proline dehydrogenase
Amino acid sequence: MLGPVLLAAARSDSIRRVVSAAPVTRPVVDRFVAGERLDQAMETVRSLTGRGLEVTLDHLGEDVTDRTEALRARDAYLALAEALREAGLGARAEMSVKLSAFGQALPGGDDIAYEGVLRVVEAAAEADTTVTLDMEDHTTVDSTLAILAKLRERFPATGAVLQSYLYRTEDDCRALAGEGSRVRLVKGAYKEPASVALQDKHEVDRAYVRCLRILMAGEGYPMIGSHDPRMVAIARELARRAGRKPDEYEFQMLYGIRTAEQERLAAAGHRMRVYVPYGTDWYGYFMRRLAERPANLAFFLRSLATRG
């Protein structure tokens, strides 16, 4: 029952100050976050790609409150795209973007976010890579998918994330299962009301499988965002039934979680992409990782006890 509490804490400024100030926090955060600077993130990219893995990079930040912050987020991604271009890593590393970091919630936010992310998508194309739009809470879904549709007019490889715990997601999967579409399917990591999202874990799992079936049977490119061994096995079987080749779908897992399984899948010939976050605004991301899996929370609490 701690999951909802931690998800609520992810947006609490007072709890943010306490957690950020705790001496033990930084070493634990380092398990899930690849540093605060771009050069640290690029070092991680080189290490992962050198081991046969692929990468998607997330410059951490969300829920910005003014235009200056939105421009700062845009510029961080432009610097990242340039670093990937200079390193020749565009074929192995893409970028993941949260539109709330680009001003989506500001007055006129749809236009502000679109203008900012368009610059990033253009820079990504110059670096021979692409961008996936992360999905946030349910109030942003329509806006995010509308911006996705506009971006795909010029950059059809732009991807999106769908969350199986939302009631609407099966319909969204059908809408995005067409040729050229790239969809990362996840279970969902935000605290959502029962009016819009499934609350029972088993029901979320079943919804995930239904969505996977739609995506695997479609003409797009499914990206299986899950650490659940059952979902990985089901995805492999659905891909086999659909006659998909290994380069026609991929698995995605978070940096620092199930590392051995990531390398096993890559060694078995699967495309395995690691979601690598970096930056100073790590708090919300970190709290959601604790909320998702009891093992993550236990790891943090053991560290607190040890340091204490």
In short: The beta strands are 54-59, 93-97, 131-133, 159-163, 182-186, 221-225, 250-254, 272-278.
